[in-house]
DNA sequence: AATGACGCCAACCGCTGGGGT
DNA sequence: AACCCCAGCGGTTGGCGTCAT
């Protein structure tokens, strides 16, 4: 069953807004606010559906909207936030005052995604010449789909994700034996393709996401005690601080690698951590 | 000057989750 | 528990402007 678009009902207007409509909407919201978007157009005397009014206000008419081109800083922030959050445009917009989710989404699709694809293409071309890594995966460059939703393939599953969605974890899981650790330091390690390396992870316990990571600033390593959770109930993530990438996402967190042992093998994860006072918690 | 290709972006569509009954 | 209503979200579309031929 296909639902008819709301605006098709009874001659409601669609398409671009006129300055007069804008004026009516602004004036009404200034006087009465927007408690009920559905009722608003009728009360304001607009031949639009509530949804259309809401969108026009949120994306264009709000007084705190910042118009004009995105600055370099804003673009970099979007790239970083997209790395962390994926296509959660509203969450990204919340970090960029004056910018709307729609605007950010458009900028991403029209500028930033293309730019990143080019950059990654260049990086992968460079790697092809210098690579010593044993790779079981076909040597394809980062795909557009990976760029479209990096958060889903570079992080442990979020509480919103299905715990049966194993591929989102395995997508960046690299397998290393303990022996490979030293090799890794020399820049060599085995990268295991998710398609050819199958392993089932137990479901993530909800408590994982709320457990705090205690950080020991003095030692070279700190330990993230997962409590019950990620791989099995006894697991701990060894966070090797030397492996912190030192990337500080706008003061909100750190990008680091984490290791967990499972069936005699070490599994490495990329985790984003955010600081909350003294402790650090997994961002996702 | 005409026209087709392309890029941008405002607006729309359909889905989802929360709250109320 | 089931249903309805609504706001909010992310994906998609279509119109318009610009550029290349």
Automatic annotation (TrEMBL):
Biased composition (Low complexity): 132-148, 162-174
Compositional bias of kind Polar residues: 149-161
Major localization class: nucleus
Keyword Transcription set for record: yes
SUPFAM superfamilies per the UniProt record, alphabetical: Homeodomain-like (SSF46689)
One of the record's GO molecular function terms: DNA binding
Domain of life: Eukaryota
GO cellular component: nucleus
Keyword Transit peptide: no
Compositionally biased spans, kind Basic and acidic residues: 176-188
Record key words, sorted: DNA-binding, Nucleus, Repeat, Transcription, Transcription regulation
UniProt cross-references to Gene3D superfamilies, sorted A to Z: Homeodomain-like
PROSITE patterns: HTH_MYB, MYB_LIKE
Ranges of residues in domain Myb-like: 9-61, 62-112
Region annotation Disordered: where it falls in the sequence: 119-188
Residues annotated as domain HTH myb-type: 9-61, 62-116
Compartments, as annotated in UniProt: Nucleus
Name of protein: Uncharacterized protein
